[in-house]
Design goal:
Largest sheet: 8 strands, mixed
CATH superfamily of the largest domain: Ribonucleoside hydrolase-like
Number of helices: 16
Structural class: alpha/beta
Bound molecules: calcium ion
Shape: globular
Helix content: 25-40%
Length: 509
Amino acid sequence: MTSCVQAELENWGPHAAGVCCPAARRTTRLVQRSVRWKVSAGRRNPHAAGRVCSPFNFKIQIQHMIRWFLALFCLVAFAVSAIAADRLRLLIETDAGGDPDDEQSLVRFLLYANEWDVEGMIANRPVARGGENRNPERTGLGIVRRQLNAYGDCWTNLARHDPRYPTKDFLWSRTVAGHNDTDQAEKLIISAVDRPDPRPLWYSDWGTDHGAATNNLKRALDRVLRERGPDGYAQFKSKLRLSSYDKFAEHTATIAPPFALWVNTFQPVVDGKRWYHRFSALTSRAGGFDLVRDVLTGHGPLGALYPTNTTHWAKEGDSMTFLYLVPTGLNDPHEPTWGSWAGRYGLNTNFPSQPYYWASLADTWNGTTHRDHTLARWAAALQNDFRARLNWCVAGEFAKANHRPTAVLDGDGTRDVLRRRVKSGDTVRFTSRGSADPDGHAIRTTWFVYREAGTFPGEIRLESLEGESTGFVAPRVEQPASVHVILQVQDNGTPSLSAYRRVVCLVQP
Ligand SMILES: [Ca+2]
Ligand SMILES: [Ca+2]
């Protein structure tokens, strides 16, 4: 669409725009039809069209109108496509009111609400669990709304650091009770999926357990199947992507088609430990993170609501559902094996031949190989990022807190994964020229090959592991194989923040 806008700016003729922009092409036809009608009306009745302008001036005015409409349409289409490319649509369902770790995750989630289009928040527990949950609000919805009020109190400051933070009122309007005696949550899910938007809807169930209502995506799918039949159901289901616990009964494995993608950030058990319990073990003190210092005190009303009475310190068992989706520049949510701030995910062996993944993969890091490393290697960076956002809650000026640098890879300043085709023996080079920090901090640029994410099994030697540029010689291969190169740009602010980029090189024989 960029070329469409450029063509439009360089050449106002309708043909230039019509070639590349279908919306503009349609508008051109409509406006031309209306012009033809008005001109002929003018000929029939000079008083109607020629009262102010001569026919010649009138024609010029109409040409201006056409250009204006075309420019507007191309710019709107460009803006929509840019949003579509950049932001994921996400809807969460929490059993807040049970294990207090949902409330821990909710604090973190709200501080990342600027990174996605949040389509909704469902609270599915009608009555908070006595003893285990000590929140003064005694319904799931009340607990979520209490946090939304605290978010609202931080919003003015948050928006100074990133204007994309949605308002409290916007989030409030999309926050509903998902109890068994109401269909509000079912309707919220169905309307989000049905919205005419080319992007899929990501859905996260945060481990709904006993005492909560029936999972609302399950209920929505039951309803769609009942009301729309198998074809309508398949079409509806094809727009969903899951980063989620499994509470969908027969919709997961029995009723075709399967979900287009399901990443289970809770399982499996490795060395006697569920993945969901590893978040606390790997992050609660990462990089010197201190919950009391960095979250609970002096960081505003939202951080102050982070509960501490969980079985694991700073447990946040549900946070990996959305950390998987944070656009860091490192990850592509449609590629679970590539790695993200929530680790790496391999095919779920319980569901052979279905696009279902769980945390089964291991990384070699600092000399040992273990699943934990798929997350531990990013733990300090992700906790520092959380700390910075808590600082934003109380920093009324942009200059009073830290912000991530921008990592530019080969001239590309987006967070997209880049792809290159290379031949065995080629020397491939990369540059981070243009990377910068919005606070004027010094930046450190490092490079590494993420060997486990690629399919080339051997070792690749980069020319340099640090500095503005690097490269490697593409290895000999018998069949195409991929090599993943990661760029990390880290600032020297407090806390130190990181941005990443990934280039996937497909090496051809
Ligand atoms: Ca939960
Ligand atoms: Ca910075």
